């Protein structure tokens, strides 16, 4: 009978709860492993599992694009980079540093303070939410399902409202006077964008498309700056790790071009020697 | 058990906030705990980034606003840049000193 409470929830909620519990447990366990395991290779592998599980949670929340990006970028690139460096550097297994009391106290103080602050916000907000839940769950099954149906429609309404406000915003952009030849092209682009937004309002667009619409319009400048940041990081990594080695022969074009004039190509008959 | 279930079951924003908070604190403790391995410190920083983007995405899903996901995207880009430079510095340091133990890196300290 202790599980009678389960009947109050829809199968969807139950599944969501189970999936969340499983992946959250995996994430926390792996994160603990990352910071305590002595072998860095194991730490990297645990980090990969943690990222994979959080990608699953992202997908469950409707952020499919970011979930996939997490798998591709983190698991595919960053974790492999970590593995490369860990294995390349031949790190000796250092015994865990003797924790100085000072450091441990500081760590626990900072962590405890942060935990308290962050959880306080959540817990303070919790009772109201719990009460709302009680209200809906104490009602009969039928009204509960009706409530969820209402919620779904309310969600749709709110999303369409958001989309409508975005459409209004883009209309405002049209109203803004633009300069010169660019005007027509810009107006056409904005019209296309508006069309796409209207489709979004009907719920025809997926997460990736909506994100793309947002990134390439509202957050365009920040997006470009992020690209610049990545370019800079790439250049920095190359400049930092590049080195000239003496034991490798390389072509030096400038010395080749500025060499002594006396040295020149000479035709030599075969087998005649120099 | 039933009370635990009832507090767990309708997965809400609060659950994701709990998760990301614990993740953040774990990463923070990892920063202090691993004062020997620079690489594990970098991984702890990754955990902090993950907790932050998880917060952004949880709020984005709860509020029905995609901007949170956009910023999670930027966090991802920043984390990638940070890791690249950090590991490059590590490689250069290892080449010069044949060691990356933090104990040896404290030269700059006055």
- Give the structural class of chain B: mainly alpha
Number of domains of chain B: 1
Gyration radius of chain B, in Å: 18 Å
Can you name the CATH architecture of chain B?
Orthogonal Bundle
In DSSP terms, counting alpha (H) and pi (I) runs of 4 or more, how many helices of chain A?
9
Largest interface: A-B, 94 and 78 residues
Topology of this structure?
The complex is a heterodimer of chains A (274) and B (110).
Chain A: H1 11-36, H2 40-60, H3 64-88, H4 101-138, H5 141-175, H6 182-201, H7 207-215, H8 220-241, H9 253-257
Chain B: H1 2-8, H2 13-33, H3 38-63, H4 67-97, H5 102-105
Descriptive report:
The complex is a heterodimer of chains A (274) and B (110). Chain A is mainly α. Helices cover 73% and strands 0% of the residues of chain A. In chain A, helix 2 runs antiparallel to helix 3. Chain A starts with 10 loop residues before the first helix and ends in a 17-residue tail after the last helix. Chain B has one domain (13-108): Helix Hairpins. Chain B is built from five helices and no strands. The radius of gyration of chain B is 18 Å and the shape is elongated. At the A-B interface, helix 1, helix 2, helix 3, helix 4 and helix 5 of A face helix 1, helix 2, helix 3 and helix 4 of B.
Write a short abstract of this structure.
The complex is a heterodimer of chains A (274) and B (110). Chain A has 274 residues and is mainly alpha-helical.
Please give a handful of descriptors for the protein shown.
heterodimer, A: 274 residues, mainly alpha, extended, B: 110 residues, Helix Hairpins, 5 helices, 81% helix
